[in-house]
Design brief:
There is one protein chain. By secondary structure, the chain is of the alpha+beta class. It has a single domain, classed as Gcn5-related N-acetyltransferase (GNAT) (Aminopeptidase), CATH 3.40.630.30. A hairpin with a 2-residue loop joins β1 and β2. It is globular and about 35 Å long. Bound molecules: coenzyme A. The site of coenzyme A has 19 residues, from β3, α3 and α4.
Length: 141
């Protein structure tokens, strides 16, 4: 992900989340040395994006979205695989994320990538209030 991608990224973000990240939040995140963000392109358009914060051998995945027009084509799975491949090159071998308890498509996506549900944060989300499932995927080094 680069600064020139942000108009489209923020558009997808606003279409998909009730508390969306702003352009400035993405820009500030991109500028940090321990973040990694990728966009997925289809037919020359940005179809989705994801990112993570790396802390030594662990990384927290923080933004995952695929534009409605490009769903169920493997875009989500491929971009997350690429994010984790790049992350592993930089030394992160354990990945965690939070997901709304009712977000069945996302939970299935993460399970298909080998993530396991290992905890719950009660009432973590707002608009609407909902529990977060905490998921992890580890690789043996
Ligand atoms: C979750 C999301 C990123 C999935 O993106 P996608 O590109 O459609 O996912 P993929 O096509 O790579 O799907 C991979 C697997 O995820 C699961 N999956 C994806 N969408 C699903 C759905 N609607 N219902 C059930 N399982 C689903 C399936 O196991 C699928 O594998 P399959 O197609 O071989 O059955 C997308 O639906 C999205 O952007 N949702 C809104 C934003 C969001 O909720 N982000 C996650 C926040 S934690």
């Amino acid at each position: 992900m680069e600064e020139r991608d942000l108009d489209r990224v923020v558009q997808i973000e606003e279409e998909n989340f009730s508390v969306p990240w702003s352009r400035k939040s993405f820009l500030d995140s991109l500028a940090l040395s321990h973040t990694l963000y990728v966009v997925a392109e289809q037919q020359g358009q940005i179809a989705g994006y994801c990112g993570c914060y790396q802390i030594l051998e662990e990384a927290e995945i923080v933004n995952v979205a695929v534009d409605k027009a490009f769903r169920r084509r493997g875009v989500g799975r491929q971009m997350l695989e690429e994010l984790m491949r790049l992350g592993k090159e930089r030394g992160s071998f354990a990945y965690t994320l939070e997901v709304r308890a009712g977000n069945v498509p996302a939970i299935h996506l993460y399970e298909s990538l080998g993530f396991k549900s290992l905890g719950i944060r009660k009432n973590f989300y707002e608009k609407p209030t909902e529990d977060a499932i905490i998921m992890w995927r580890h690789w043996s080094v």
